[in-house]
Amino acid sequence: MATRHATGHRLDPLLAPRSIAFVGASTRSGSVGNNMIKEILAGGFTGEIYPVNPRYDSVEGVKCHPSLAALPEPVDHVVLAVANRRLEAQLAEAAAHGARAATIFASGYLEGDGDPPLVERLAAIARDAGMELCGGNCPGFYNFGANIFVVAFPCGGHAEPGPITLITQSGSLMYPLVDIEGRLSYNLVISSGQELVTTAADYLDYALDLPSTRVVALFLETVRDPRGFRAALEKARGRRVPVVVLKVGRTAQSAALAVSHSGAIAGDDAAYQAVFEHHGVIRVRDIEEMVATLMLLSMERRVSSGGLAAILDSGGSRELLIDLMDDVGMAFAKISAETRERLAQRLDYGLEPVNPLDAWGTGHDYEQIFIECLSALMDDPDTAIGVFVTDHARRDAPKGYGGICEIVAARTAKPITIVTHHRGTDSDPRDIALTKAGIPVIDGIQPFLSALRHVFDYRDFCARPPAPPPAPVGAAVTARWRKRLAGEASLDEVEALALIADYGIPAVPARLVEDAAAAIAAAESLGYPVAVKTAMPGIAHKSELGGVRLNLPDAAAVEAAYADLAGRLGPRAVVAAMAGPGVEMALGVVVDDQFGPLVMVGAGGVHVELLGDVRFALPPFGAAEARRLIDGLRIRPVLDGGRGLPPADLDALAEALARLSVLAADLGGVVREIDLNPFIVQPKGCAAVDALVVTARPG
User: Fold this and answer.
1) Are residues 637 and 566 in the same domain?
2) Which residues pair with 20 in a beta bridge?
3) pTM (2 decimals)?
4) What is the pLDDT of residue 172?
5) Which domain holds residue 569?
């Protein structure tokens, strides 16, 4: 029997099966075996349901079978509600039965387990049989769009299907978001658990094939299929479906094995953030921010160009809103003179016709005043979205604030929201009804503004024109450096500077020397003043060992500096030209185990790790993306100059960073870390004055 819910996706047997067997079905009320039968019936599943347990003739009025082998037909999906010790045998039986998918509620952990452990044995059984697998250690999933509830515990309210897909690696977060938060409506909710076979990337890919999916929410602890995850995110980007992620576990990667500053700064989270920014993923910090963001993005109406127009019934609330808007770095819509005139004609005496607008005066005819003023704000060309900021007072008025917003919403195609001053513990039925009608009611100004920041950022991300990276350096150059880097412990500094120069990244001229005469000759060739630095193998951070001498004005100074370094650290040294004055930045490359090479830019100098003012991005990228990374740094205002100092050459810095991204994309497989620190950005031009390159297989 074909299912009307099939998408043609390989996950159909898992998430939209035609028939389901429930192994471990039970008549005991409150048990998982009983809950799962009640829930599949409550959902209204139209396919075949087969409880399986030799102890019963029927469960919840449905005929029960003694085993999978006793079923009248092979089923698409087998749900295993059995103890850990029985999982392996039951999954093997499901595979032999010909099931194409399974859900496992239990954890898969056995005391005194063997090698490989049970979870790995379960994954092997499923993969060998070509089965998709939800779990283990999960409460299951809801396919609201297909009326399929495969869950271990009851859902408090069976909501009508909506536009949100929720994929969570935490089962405990599934229920409050589905049961308690009545303002959100879902088409698909999945607790992916251990993801023994089927991963969050697979579920995301499936959700994007559902026409009902307007926004996807992910609660992530880790990504088990990085390549598939990025492919799914790119699919979401192409289909303009925003993805909202709450990523937990932002622990720093151990720096013990990191050689460069770049490697020491980069943590596990740096790669995730770079991936999210590359694909336009919206990252939220907590559940409140996620809920508010989902409410805005699940609206049928999307924000266009422009800013926020706000109407309030309190001057104090307006001041609070203005302060909080400044905190999140957003601006209000710049309303026109015509709009201000419309407001002035309707406002009570003494109220200013501005945005944000305090429209509460004497209270006389306030409903009509609010309707006309909010309409004027929404009609303004620079308004992208409107908000009514209020409390829940005056609900007993003939229209009420919700009714006012409904009237104005019928006059405009732009989105309108209501934001309350205080976050409540539950959703008022009237707020739920307004939200379902397309006017989200959001608790708290701060969550609303954080969510709106995300919405504006996603809008701007989608509007960006393509920005290709710089032209490649050529296959011959790449092949030569790949061969040189393969198996080497590291390059010396002169070679490292030559490498980046080959990729079009400016670098100061330098010479490798091994005696005082050669040092003086190199200095004479380069021109004074010069720097002399140790180049002894194994010394990554020269300054920390007193291995750098700067601004040496003549041969005598060079000879003395070289003698000191050679005597303390060894004879190999680098003589380099001095860069002119400028702002010290740091550029770098690190390679993440999951997502590959990352390019770094940040504040440079000896305190780079302490300051931690860095941004990471996936290579390759163009100068426009490089400029966005630079603009996100705390040091960014310093690059504008001031107090008698000229501005730094931002275009040159962005171009150098973009060219470093080409290098990272070309050589990420043979390079583990690159550190260009300091990288001096001058009023005209820029240059690396130090370079460290560590190969992927250091010796």
Assistant:
1) no
2) 49, 77
3) 0.91
4) 85
5) 509-577
